[in-house]
């Protein structure tokens, strides 16, 4: 049994609980830094894809996981970030300026959308954001002079401090670029949750009436959350466009929005770790299914022809299983296992019992 004995106020607000947890994070950071020398180009590309999905998951986690606002339209903001980045680069803006500008533009669009949309709650907000995601598909087609329409656009190699980076010709450099952006955003997210604004997000999520009683401007907090969420998602969209190299209006479909929401639910809603765990599932599941079909075909002599809808069917079954048996997601399960080892033999099953009733203040809405 390991007990953390706190002797300083800084221990309550620092990002890690103790030196042991910090050492684990540092070991993980070392592992992902040396990955290009361990993995071949194929698996390095898959790891890059996981980091991009994790970045998009962090964007949605701000809004849904920590502010409690459901969204099924974040594929639209992935598209905004992707197209804004490429259009700025084609206009002659350097990538190191175009990339953050793409995130900023997407965040501003998110704030504008949030003003009318956040008057809605629950399923009505989800439907409104879903409609926006569908609408963006038509907007891309109608603005063909800028977006390329159905024909789409091609992402060029980008210049980062004098180094030309391309997903195919320089996979290691592109991986490090993605890793750097992901680490910076994650550190910013951690510090956001320690700040008054991040605590306001969580207060609004738990009870809007109680948060308002404590002096929090609920509408302003929701709008800021929506803007930050869309800005981070826009950065992920810019990297996703560079990763795909070719994209059009069908690249960022409604399915992507649904995948993002399912990803953070499976990973663990309301935790930064959950975005990464969910990204691992959604990133490696297609490859796992492909390898499994080949293995089963080799052993049993069956066909390895692709089965339409198999990936989404299995992903849906995984989601249902987590909702029924582990609502806290993969990170919640890991938290229970870790707590069991830390508190053994004093661990009790009811420590993580679900709250089955709403706050009385929420019944006034």
TrEMBL record:
Keywords: Cell membrane, Membrane, Transmembrane, Transmembrane helix. It is found in: Cell membrane. InterPro entries: ABC_transp_permease, LivM-like. The chain crosses the membrane at residues 20-38, 44-63, 70-89, 95-115, 122-142, 174-192, 223-244, 256-285, 297-325. It holds the Pfam family BPD_transp_2. GO terms for molecular function: branched-chain amino acid transmembrane transporter activity. It is a multi-pass membrane protein. Its main location: membrane. GO terms for cellular component: plasma membrane. PANTHER family: HIGH-AFFINITY BRANCHED-CHAIN AMINO ACID TRANSPORT SYSTEM PERMEASE, HIGH-AFFINITY BRANCHED-CHAIN AMINO ACID TRANSPORT SYSTEM PERMEASE PROTEIN LIVM. This is Branched-chain amino acid ABC transporter permease. It comes from Phaeobacter gallaeciensis.
């Amino acid at each position: 049994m390991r007990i953390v004995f706190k002797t300083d106020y800084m221990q309550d607000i620092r990002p890690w609980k103790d030196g042991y947890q910090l050492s684990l994070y540092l070991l993980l950071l070392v592992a992902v830094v040396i990955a290009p020398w361990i993995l071949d180009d194929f698996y390095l590309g898959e790891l890059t894809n996981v980091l991009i999905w994790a970045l998009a998951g962090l964007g949605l986690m701000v809004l849904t996981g920590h502010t409690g606002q459901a969204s099924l339209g974040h594929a639209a903001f992935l598209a905004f970030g992707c197209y804004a980045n490429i259009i700025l680069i084609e206009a002659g803006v350097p990538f190191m300026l175009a990339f953050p500008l793409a995130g900023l533009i997407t965040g501003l669009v998110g704030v504008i959308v949030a003003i009318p949309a956040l008057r809605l709650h629950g399923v009505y907000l989800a439907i409104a954001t879903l409609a926006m995601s569908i609408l963006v598909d038509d907007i891309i087609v109608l603005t063909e002079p800028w977006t390329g329409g159905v024909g789409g656009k091609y992402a060029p190699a980008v210049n980062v401090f004098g180094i030309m980076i391309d997903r195919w010709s320089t996979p290691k450099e592109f991986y490090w670029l993605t890793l750097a952006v992901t680490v910076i955003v994650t550190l910013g997210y951690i510090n956001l949750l320690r700040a008054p604004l991040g605590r306001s997000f969580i207060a609004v999520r738990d009870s809007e009436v109680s948060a308002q009683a404590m002096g929090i401007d609920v509408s302003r907090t929701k709008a800021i959350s929506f803007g930050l969420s869309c800005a981070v998602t826009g950065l992920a969209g810019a990297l996703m466009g560079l990763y795909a190299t070719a994209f059009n209006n069908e690249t960022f479909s409604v399915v992507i929005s649904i995948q993002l929401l399912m990803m953070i639910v499976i990973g663990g809603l309301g935790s930064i770790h959950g975005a990464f765990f969910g990204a691992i599932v959604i990133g490696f599941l297609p490859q796992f299914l492909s390898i499994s079909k080949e293995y089963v075909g080799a052993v049993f002599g069956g066909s390895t022809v692709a089965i339409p809808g198999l990936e989404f069917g299995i992903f849906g079954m995984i989601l249902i299983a987590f909702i029924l048996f582990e609502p806290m997601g993969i990170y919640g399960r890991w938290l229970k296992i870790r707590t069991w080892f830390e508190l053994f033999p004093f661990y009790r099953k009811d420590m993580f019992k679900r709250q089955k009733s709403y706050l009385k203040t929420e019944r006034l809405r």
